[in-house]
Amino acid sequence: MFESAELGHKLSKGQYKRIEPKLRVDLLNAQYQLSQLGKFPVIVLISGVRGAGKGETVNLLNEWMDPRHIHTHAFDNPSDEESERPPMWRYWRALPPKGKIGILFGSWYTAPIIDRVFGRAKARDLLHAVEEINRFEKMLADDGALILKFWFHLSKKAQRKRLKALESDRETRWRVTARDWSFFKLYDRFSRVSEDALRQTSTAWAPWIVVEGSDPEYRAVTAGKTLLEAMKKRLSAWPERRSKKSDAAPLVQPVDKLHILDRLDLSHTLPKKRYQKELAALQGELAKLTRHPKFPQHTVVLVFEGMDAAGKGGAIRRITGAIDARLYHTIPIAAPTDEERAQPYLWRFWRHLPRKGRFVIYDRSWYGRVLVERVEGFAAEADWLRAYSEINDFEQQLARNGAIVAKFWLQISKQEQYRRFKEREKTRFKQFKITPEDWRNRERWDAYQVAAADMIERTGTGHAPWTLIGANDKYHARVKILDTLARALRARLKG
Amino acid sequence: MFESAELGHKLSKGQYKRIEPKLRVDLLNAQYQLSQLGKFPVIVLISGVRGAGKGETVNLLNEWMDPRHIHTHAFDNPSDEESERPPMWRYWRALPPKGKIGILFGSWYTAPIIDRVFGRAKARDLLHAVEEINRFEKMLADDGALILKFWFHLSKKAQRKRLKALESDRETRWRVTARDWSFFKLYDRFSRVSEDALRQTSTAWAPWIVVEGSDPEYRAVTAGKTLLEAMKKRLSAWPERRSKKSDAAPLVQPVDKLHILDRLDLSHTLPKKRYQKELAALQGELAKLTRHPKFPQHTVVLVFEGMDAAGKGGAIRRITGAIDARLYHTIPIAAPTDEERAQPYLWRFWRHLPRKGRFVIYDRSWYGRVLVERVEGFAAEADWLRAYSEINDFEQQLARNGAIVAKFWLQISKQEQYRRFKEREKTRFKQFKITPEDWRNRERWDAYQVAAADMIERTGTGHAPWTLIGANDKYHARVKILDTLARALRARLKG
Fold it and tell me: How far is A82 from A104, CA to CA, in rounded Å?
């Protein structure tokens, strides 16, 4: 991939002077159009070898355009808040909102490539990383993001010359460090690993743009023009893009209409006395498990989904009642805020991920995408269909980072829901819990059941399993949930 | 203040059992009312001595109420992201939005008290901290927050007994550390320092509630009832609260209508040739200053204010053009997002404060409170009047943390603004810059000038000075701004 970036591309100063003023104006204009449309972000990755003009390009783009609408992030070593979360957390944090340009200097490519160059990672680790990156970028692209990945390249000879030149100038000497030379010694290996990684991540939705870095004028104009053309193309194509239909085969429902949830036994009950005893025992065990010496190495991520009035809140409070309040956050998911709406839908769940040694409990979750958003048509078919694998990727990242993930679907019968709705309407302090929307959702009971069955089938994994809870009897449901959670913790902490 | 919390307050288990169920229901109800109203947050501080039931109270409040609407934050040692910002940053981060309850376990009181107990701070440092805290809490209260500060107390004898009891129980032994006993040895000193601090911060808007901590039932019911009554009182009083008028004497304008801005010489000009030369020299110097070995210890906070079309954007770009793009963030201030609207108005500026070694450039700023919000009536008189001192407090915290703060007011004449508006309307790629709102604002020219003059007078400080820029000539303005900035940096880095 680097051959054409070793040809000695050049642009004369005269040519540059003719091109640059118009390019600046056009870029500014594209930027304001992007901002006024406010429908998609532009994500610019700046990567490549040392001395190839990465920093200069970032500065130039900021100078040419309006820096008020550019978010530039340079990634160095992760902060302690970052290093206690999955590696991608710091990049999610830095994603530009719709309408803005985000320039990422250093990116999700840095660690996999460096780790491989220095032998800390095997070939198959890199392969694995590459696959994950492709899926991540696909998700961004599907969400509308325009992704431009620049790789600034120098031939070995050119890099040596460049480092020497920087070193010999009093003004720029500070920029060359021992680390740069130690990297240079590994030039061939670095080049081979990068080329591999680039080839495998140069996708239709996020292709790499390799730029020869030795001539500043050529480099600058290439980066600027590429960005401009990509923005113009996307801006002009925008209106049509939105009317997207999925080309996928439809999810076919079982012809006998029998779903996994129909087979769930809802007749279990637990007498109050036994409930109180078992609850106390389980809460005691849970409390103890949070003081296990290994607990601070894990995050516990709990997801609660279920039909309205299935008892999610009550179950959550039986868990939180057992844990020190400093150790958990409960995140009730309601309508997204406007900051959240300007980001990919998983963003608002990523942002709440806690540091290690903590619980985070989602009362409704990212599964809204394939439940309410699917059923009510808030998400296009193409969008909720791809959510299954996006969600699996997300949860896999959590698990790999040491998270203990447990997901609960609380199932009640349609009759039981009716009984609970009526009871809520009668009880003064429960009235806030029942709204006309609940009654409306109830009318779509069957559609929700189909969606839930699909969800459970497509997102139940070994590292993030669904537990189906027959919840007609609250006592039974709560004990089953606590028991499942305690088992999961025990298996990880003591296993 | 602690005398009445050493009386041996008690509640029998029987009494507790009678009171508790109703208290829970009432608290839940108050919580939902709070959430539905969505107009103010409740901030609960949990402080006091070790073993007095702080943790138990936090857990109980979370158990009694709906944890989905409670944000509990425990503050231990600051993370590295926190320790590079002013000490209050981590608390601003944790403030609950309107409609929610925030429980802060550990708070802005912890460090000042501990530092004084261990002799790391002098008496006058504590006094100073106390004054700052009072102003901070006043700001929160003025913004509508209901603040409850609980101090859980134990007599010396009771504390010793409590620690011994914890230690002798196999289940709770882990909770007592060597640190607890080392604190206990300082009981008298700790008690004296805390009592002092509490007395001086027990204000009308945020009084301390000292609770005897030895009896769990008494402690729990006292905390619960106090919180409930405070919420009920505030919720019922809400509608009237909003019709608040300032009792302050009005800001009197000079009877001759002569303002500081009228005296500003707008006739300065700079020929293009000299501009280019001086600009290049200043940008070069600025770039060098950012590589000064002391630079990474400072944050640079720049504020740009001025009438529409005064040239703020252009000036900012002449600064950013000189600096590595990784070192600055430009924050254009537009309408607040809904997450920002749910917080005190300074919150959205606090959130953008960078780590050390960085520039943050606010294109319009917190001064909107005393400019546009004052002139257009978006903020009540009482609110913008108090903003002057709130802003001074904010900037003082920045300065004390090592920030270099520079504020620029760009002044143009009314005729020059007209000329620029017309020019913008004519130039295709500048049209986005001119809106009907700009013309409307122009009609209030005089009111804005009066507001600006008041602002400059009341918020110009040694550590965060205003520089008034005659900006009819853009070249002159930009050079003056860069020169001022370079001087400020030089003084701090080389001084």
Answer: 16
What is the pTM for the complete model shown?
Answer: 0.89
Classify strands B299-306 and B208-212 as parallel, antiparallel or unpaired: unpaired
Joined together, the tokens standing for residue A66 give 């309006």
pLDDT < 50 regions, chain A: none
Tokens 């429902």 belong to residue: A253
Instruction: Name the pLDDT band for B258 (thresholds 50, 70, 90).
Output: confident
Facing residue for A326 by CB, picked from B29, B72, B429:
B72
Nearest to A279 by CA among A314, A330, A329, A328: A314
Which tokens belong to B5? 């919390």
Q: How far apart are the first and last CA of chain A?
A: 47
Mean pLDDT of the residues in chain B? 92
Query: Mutual orientation of helices A178-185 and A156-168 as an angle, nearest 10°?
Result: 160
Interface list for chain A against chain B, based on CB atoms closer than 8 Å:
25, 28-29, 32, 36, 55, 58-59, 61-63, 66-72, 74, 79-81, 103, 105, 174, 291, 313, 316-317, 320-321, 324-326, 328-332, 337-339, 363, 429, 432
Using CA atoms, how far residue A95 sits from A104, A463, B267, in Å, is 9, 27, 45
Q: Is B309 left (phi over 0), alpha (psi -120 to 50) or beta?
A: left
Chain B contacts to A (CB-CB under 8 A): 25, 28-29, 32, 36, 55, 58-59, 61-63, 66-72, 74, 79-81, 103, 105, 174, 291, 313, 316-317, 320-321, 324-326, 328-332, 337-339, 363, 429, 432
Tens digits of residue pLDDT in B170-216: 878 888 888 889 889 999 999 999 999 999 999 989 999 999 999 99
Residue B300 near residue B359 (C-beta atoms within 8 A): yes
The whole-angstrom separation of Cα B15 and Cα B217 is 9
Neighbours of B363 (CB within 10 A): 20
Q: Hey, what amino acid is at A310?
A: A
- A126 Cβ contact partners less than 8 Å away, ≥ 6 residues apart: A112, A113, A115, A116, A193, A196, A197
